[in-house]
Amino acid sequence: MPPACDTDIDDIEDLVNGMYLDNADSGSYFLPDSRHDRELPAMVPQKAKLIASSRIREKTRQQKFALSEEVVGDVPGTQKIYVKTYGCSHNMSDSEYMMGQLAAYGYSFTEDAEEADVCLINSCTVKNPSQDSFIGMVERAKLKDKPVVVAGCVPQGDRNLKGLEDVSIIGVQQIDRVVEVVEETLKGNKVRLLSKNRLPRLDLPKIRKNPLVEIIPISTGCLGSCTYCKTRHARGKLGSYEVQTIVDRAKQAAQDGVKEVWLTSEDTGAYGRDIETDLPALLRAILEVLPPDVMLRVGMTNPPFILEHLEAIADILNHPQVFAFLHIPVQSGSNDVLLKMNREYTREEFCQVADFLKAHVPDVCVATDIICGFPTETNEDFEETLSLVRQYKFSVMNISQFYPRPGTPAAKMKRVDTKEVKRRSTELTKLFESYSCYDDMKGRVEKVWITEHEDAEHTVGHTKSYVKVLIPRDDNLLGKSTFVKIVDTAKWHVVGEIVKPDSTCNSAPSKCQCSSKKGEQGSEPLASELQNPSLMANWKLVVSGAAVALASMLIYSSGPQ
User: Fold this and answer.
1) In 102-212, which ranges are E strands?
2) 8 A C-beta contact, residue 9 and residue 130
3) How far apart are CA 125 and CA 132, in angstroms?
4) Alpha-carbon distance 471 to 485, whole Å?
């Protein structure tokens, strides 16, 4: 069975993706092909490829068979680990890296915390509910006498938090030492690694939750100082990876058969300001190495820094290999509230960003976040937020009630009455649910990229604007692009059926109105594209599915069970 990683996702980019991280159809092992020494767990190879090293398999097999049943549980690298992840895609990437290193060392994973030998819990500090859930999970594990290792922003931001006194802690910039921490914890020791003086390497072993999606952190920390946010306490100041380091990771992921590359950070717009480069330069460099059938998705950016790059970003979002989707949290429509939040932009500047993108990027999706009931927010302030939502009718919007995070300036501000906060949240939710964003798509033919299954009946694709499309389940479509006619719409997605566009149609594929031709595979190339090698490449599936399956089988047969 695939490796387990139980995940709670609060990040809007994961919500809009249809919660792919909850899909456990398959796991992808990204393992090293060279040095593997059980006596030196901190030594990780410089390069890793999607193969199961025969030397590792043979060494693991010999060691395991040499052990008696009575002592096998005491040997490092033979235990089962339960992994739980809360939070954003950056956290998910951290968990994938930690699981990859543990799997390379010989550990296996279980979806059942009861049968685990140790619990690894990766936390999120953005909201009270996610932190409370995390603490509850830690307490339940301790009650069952399970050794616990905690990671993520909660312990990094508050190492003295009640409930974490007797567990091991691994900091957000120490994830490449997870094997050491797990080993020591299983011995009964408590380890705390919280230093933030370096960036974890990007070439570590990795287990992808979705073998077709690579999540690459391009930086950690941010340049902001929002009065309500505790993530800055945990992730620290901005630390950007070098362009070539990220490019190399993206190139390697594409060679592994990945079909989508997601760039994540606390603020992608701020990328590079500490190393004399910028986000557009990084995106162009990545696009130079990506095969034509791999799509790129840009993660969350705050308005202040993206303002400096609007033309360049619009140009990149129009690139055929970049999803026309950008997550730009506005948080409030009131300038007074934005000032108290210390967001460093105004409503007008957010509108400048949104309006420019909508004018220059056809069908662009601007997703956003809003906090209801921030301290001192008046009814007039809230009405300004409602008017902003009416103005833009965001198709993707994450609505949160204000939660005071300990240690933040906002926690000391006078709070809005809890009942009033709930009322405003309910009113905003009703407004959001009152309008439809996808009705005009009905009848259109859209090109979609497919990387997951929704359930036993549906396969999931996304349009160029990252609209979620449900089509009848077809396992053969995973990792491919195809043309789909939209036959129905809903609030969060559209429903489609595969079509083959008329080769005589002069419309752009995304606007094609050709009728459905059932029984024909829309993933075949158009007649007009047969003479164009570069376009033909878009229709060719990199032989990754079989390789991933084979590598996973080899690993399961010799390593993690």
Assistant:
1) 108-109, 118-123, 148-152, 168-170, 192-193, 206-208
2) no
3) 9
4) 10
C-beta of residue 269 within 8 angstroms of C-beta of residue 306: yes
Question: How far apart are alpha carbons 561 and 547 in whole angstroms?
Answer: 19
Q: How many CA atoms lie within 13 A of 159 on its CB side?
A: 11
CA pair distance 394, 252, nearest whole angstrom: 35
First to last CA, the chain: 8
19, 454 contact by CB (below 8 A): no
Which residues, other chains included, contact 124 with Cβ-Cβ below 8 Å and sequence gap of 6+? 8, 10, 86, 87, 88, 91, 130, 131, 134, 152, 153, 154
- 3-state class of 43 per DSSP? coil
Cα radius of gyration rounded to whole Å, the chain: 24
Q: In whole angstroms, what is the distance from residue 50 CA to residue 29 CA? A: 6
What are the pLDDT digits (tens) for 282-320?
999 999 999 999 999 999 999 998 999 999 999 999 999
Q: Cα(294)–Cα(322) distance, rounded to whole angstroms?
A: 9
Nearest Cα to Cα of residue 504 among 522, 487, 527, 521? 527
Tokens of 118: 């140790």
> CA angle at residue 308 from 306 to 309, to 5 degrees?
70
CA distance 178 to 102: 7
Question: 198-245 pLDDT, tens per residue?
Answer: 788 888 888 888 899 999 999 988 888 899 887 776 677 899 999 999
Q: Rounded to two decimals, what is the model's pTM?
A: 0.73
d(CA 57, CA 59): 6
